Amino acid sequence: MEVLERAGYSAYLVGGAVRDLLLGRAPADLDIATNAKPEIVKSLFDRTVDTGIRHGTVSVRVRDQWMEVTTFRAEGPYADGRRPDYVEFVDDVVADLARRDFTINAMALDRSGRLVDPFGGRQDLARRLLRAVGDPVERFREDGLRLVRAVRFVVQLSLACDPATERALVEQVDAIRPIALERIGRELERLACAPWHEHLDWLASLPLWRQRGEPLAWLEQGFAWLAARRPFSLAPPPGWPSVALWFVGLDEDAPLCGKRFAESLAYGKDVAHSVERAVRLVRAWLGGADATSPLMLYEAGYDAAVMAARMIAFLTCGDLFERARWKRAICNQPLWDRADLALPARDLMDMGARGKEIGEYQQALVKAVLSGKMKNRREDLRRLVMAWRKEDDGHGLGGQPGARSAD
Description:
Layout: H1 2-6, E1 11-14, H2 16-22, E2 31-34, H3 38-44, E3 48-52, E4 57-62, E5 65-71, E6 73-75, E7 87-89, H4 93-97, E8 108-109, E9 115-116, H5 121-126, E10 129-130, H6 136-142, H7 145-156, E11 160-161, H8 163-171, H9 181-191, H10 200-205, H11 208-211, H12 218-228, H13 240-248, H14 254-264, H15 269-286, H16 294-300, H17 302-315, H18 320-332, H19 345-350, H20 356-370, H21 378-391
Parallel strand pairs: 2-5, 10-11
Antiparallel strand pairs: 1-2, 1-8, 3-4, 4-5, 6-7, 8-9
Helix pairs in contact: 7-9, 12-13, 13-14, 13-15, 13-17, 14-15, 15-16, 15-17, 17-18
């Protein structure tokens, strides 16, 4: 901001950073708005990236931090319901703030600490109120992602919607249809780190989820199931365990629904598999199975097991017995992966195993270790394989994976 002002331009901290400062929170990101055009911004800083230069945004490196610097702008119509058809650069910060979604995000702070608040965002924060800038119907029609952002802000900041904004949130739900699932996913990822458990009735009642179809539509049932299990005395585990919790209450396809949800919202294959396995583990526990058995933990994997333990701690309101049981089981788990076997594949090859026979031996060894009949020690496992080979007259497991007993 100082660099821009020295060059004769105005500069303001804007958006969520101002909101967070007024709430006494450390801002996650610093966004600067200025009347300097992008080419001027690039000339004033040594390290820049054209983040969204067509819309006036340049990322600049200041000391050890990247921040986005955007030229004051007004926006044209949103024909596709996602982004403006064009932008026009303006000289007035108030005109720039007028294009923003909610009053609590439509404030600017200059370097002297002077607040520019033309729409009453500070008062709305004090009243814990979420209110759209101008006509809420227009704001939601411009960009349907604002519907999900509204939900996220209500939950994240414990706000209430003002009547006009809440009415538009319900009546304009079809605006979410053209929005890419990846964009929705980023908002729901933030929602998963907020106190969503305090708003379950409201979340379950929103028609928003159904409008986008599956997999988003499944959230309605998931939130309703959790609402029926209240009260919860602990805050939910943030992040992916919360996402997994939203799917525990679905039918027997819940694990696959959770996986598809994570994949569709671009959370990555590893996260999707962990969500699927954690949901499967928690549902097994709910059904009375010994979900902490070595075999079930092995099939789930370490990440999913830890996720499931945190989910169950939430569902049981921190029951000390359950927490201790899961912690003990995870700490004492003898194997998490076939690669953890103390007898490596090279040893099996040295003993004469070849091709698929190696995998068959490894599968049988995993079974022996998980059953508790054999310790995961190299020499013990080696003796067991030698006994199997002797029993088979040197022909391994005879094409029958897991056929040998450790007894």
